[in-house]
Structure formats: structure tokens, C-alpha cells
Amino acid sequence: MTKKIEKLPEQIPIFPLSNFIIFPKTTVPLNIFEPRYIQMVDDAMKGHRIIGMIQPKKIEKKTSLYNIGCAGKITSFNETEDGRYLIVIVGVSRFKILNEINTEKLYRQYNVSFNEFNNDLSNKEEEIKFSDLKFIFKDFKSLFNKQGYVINWKELEKQSLNYTINTLSMVSPFSLEEKQILLETINLNERKKKLEEILKIYVNDDFSNKTLQ
Length: 213
Description:
By secondary structure, this protein is of the alpha+beta class. Helices cover about 40% and strands about 25% of the residues. The protein has helices at about 5, 35-45, 135-145, 155, 160-170, 175-185, 190-210, and strands at about 10-15, 25-30, 50-55, 70-80, 85-100, 110-115.
């Protein structure tokens, strides 16, 4: 176990968001307005600034959660005049839920383990040629255009392959379950393969619908 992983907290607050995932080293803005999550951010800012992002399995008052999420660190914090928090979090490492902690807090807290995702904290990037993404980019551009998504492709192409693949996985118009599959892939090469498989289904479905019309 690396020293970095030992420094990550064993207990973290959990922020469940449906159809929303983050990956290590990616950056996402969040608009916080619910009282329970205002409290969560207040508490996180007093300590390690770590919150766990995870997907709920279904919409209920007390949601059941997937076992795997990604912890993010609050790197920017601003409060609006109407009491909302505008924060930016940077993905740190994926984690596995162990058990929920009973507290008086409005939000939920869990004991978690980062042990299965040692590589998330590594600075070493996996070797994938940008040419390997050629067909992924082509299919994504077609899919995003039809969905009305606006992506700065030129800017995205300047980023590292890790960042590009993870960002496309995050912003894709895929289902909750499909995004969870991408989140749980062990490494970038496997994520790229899964991304291609899922994307192919969407492209083929779209082609079939066109053919029927």
C-alpha cells in the first residue's frame, strides 16, 4: 500500500448523483443548494476536503448505492448571495464502500477502502496511441451532434489520453448502468474497450432506426 493511499480518509461523506461519475485527475464544478449537502461541504471544508461521488441504483427516499465511487477533493469554494455553494472538485481515487456510519448528520457517511485502486494515484500514464481514438472520436462526434451536445473537440484533443477517455466517459449520453461499468474498469485500456463497445451499440441502434424509417 502506498503512503498516498494511507493518507486518504477511511471515512468520507457521500454525495449520490444519478448518471454522474468522475475519475481521478478530472475536474468538475458542482452547484450545491440542498441543506444536507451544504452541511456536507461545510464539514468537508473544516477537514480533509474529500467527498465521495457515487451513483444511486434507484430513486428512493433512502437510496441504495453502487459499491464503487470516486473521491474528489474540493479545490475551489464560493458562496453565492442566495446561499448556494459553487465548488470545484478534482478526482483523487476510486473507492469501494464498506459500510454506512450512523450519525446525526443530514448527509450520509461511509467507511470506504481505496486499496483496490492503487493505480489511481500513480502519475504514470498508460500507453495508448491517439490514433487508437480515431474511430471513437468519429462516432462520438456523430452521437453528440444528434443529442445536441456541444464539445470543444480541438481543446479535448490537446489533453492527455487518460483525460480524454475519462472525460468522454463522464460526459457521454449513456445510461446510469453503462457509466458505472466505465467507472469500474480497472485500467484505461479496459475503459477504452468498454467505451468502444457501448458506443457501437448506440451507433448501430441509430443506424437501425434510420433504416426502419
